[in-house]
Amino acid sequence: MAFALDEFLGRKWVCEHCGKEHFVPTKWVHIGEGAFGLLCELGKQVERSRAVSVVADEITWKVAGERVADALKEIGCKVQSVIFPLPLHGTDEAAIWLLNQWSRDVKLAFAVGSGTVNDLVKWAASQAKIPYIAVPTAASMNGYTSPISALLIQGFKRTQPCAPPEGILSEPKVVASAPKRMTSAGYADLMSKAVADVDWQISNLLWGEHYCPLPRKLVADADEWLQKRLGDLADNEPQAVAGLLEALLLSGIGMTIAGSSTPSSGAEHLISHWLEMKAIREGREPDLHGLQVGVGTLVALTVYEMLLETSPSDWGPSEDEFLPPDERRSEFAERYGAISEQVLSEFSLKWLSPEKANEGRQKLADNWERVKEIVTSTWVPPQVHRHRLSILGAATHPNEIGVSVDELREAILHAREIRRRWTVLDTAYLVGLLPAQVDEILRRCGWL
User: What is the pLDDT of residues 15-71, one digit of tens each?
Assistant: First the structure.
């Protein structure tokens, strides 16, 4: 393996960085040619009277699912295969349907696929209280080893606490056979951590949220390795794609260490979730999550760039700072329809009264030099990020993810409403950059 995953797997330790106890439930990772040969040993762990479920979608079943199922059958396992039709969405209905497909005899599950398949199996396995093995078929996202499942629950994107997989099993040729767009989506998802970590640190500084630097350190250690192999990633070279997958697994382990998605999900992910929720409400198919995140990262980097150009003397309240959430019900109902009350409830948890907002601005001003250090320590100029994305063929314009500039403007203005998490979008409202400067953000990104 390219990175030292083994030193974290199945371990409990007191973190030297934050002093808290961490535990990574995932016990092993096997990525390499011939890795599927380990299925024999895994199958032997299951009593012959018990069933093993192999879950895939129509494509990943052909790529690897059928091979996994056949290998388990050859050693005498009772295999129950579940193949999702396409298009597949990570909804609560699909997750409950999967759980109901499993017989009571199922004692081990295999999630053969990428993001959506893994989210569904992770949730169902946690509900059934059985272990599962993730069999990634693409290096497209970082949720394989995370402690959460991201599901659309009645149209509202939520993260559900779930047990991570017991192990990861994958072969480089399999993940490298995925469409190039999926590899570029995985890279874009991973590179968003530079801004997500800054959001987390500023939330710690302003509001006292617990922060641990280890998750960012794990991913940062992979950055240099990956930057040297952008050409190989663009060509879907197996070892480079396998290295990307390992880095994504480290990112997921970082979420397990933190106990939430905070190290890997900031403003850029809220923009992606907001766009996905809007597309689903309108009956459209959203683009790959990682590609949307890449565009969202360009926004977040640009907002941080503009924030660094200000000084505390420039700051003032935003236009809607003094309007309590309860007085915005009709506005939220028009924007979010059936899920408006859920969004309003989430947003209310971080709404700041005028007094609290003044306190936040003052704390930001008192720590302004430290804030600038935090941002510049991991921040990448937007043009550098755009260039790296373009090498891999990832989206660098909203039109490339099926989103108009007007829709993205709305996402920048309102994506913060769907989560209680503090991000740079909230900081921009706190100091008055938003909503006033939204078109300047779009202009600097090259979209106006």
Answer: 888 888 989 999 999 999 999 988 888 777 777 667 999 999 999 999 999 999 999
> Comparing C-alpha atoms, which of 370, 198, 392 is closest to residue 297?
198
Q: What is the pTM of this model?
A: 0.95
Number of H helices, E strands in the chain: 21, 10
Q: Where are the beta strands (DSSP E) in 18-113?
A: 21-23, 28-31, 51-57, 78-84, 106-113
Whether residues 168 and 235 fall in one domain: no
Number of Cα atoms under 13 Å in the Cβ half of residue 116: 24
Q: What is the CATH number of the domain that holds 171?
A: 3.40.50.1970
What size, in residues, is the chain? 448
Residues 168 and 153: their CA atoms lie apart, in Å, by 27
Read off the amino acid at residue 441. I
Greatest C-alpha distance within the chain:
72
Is 52 part of any domain? yes
Between CA 379 and CA 300 the distance in angstroms is 10
| Domain identity same for 116 and 48 | yes
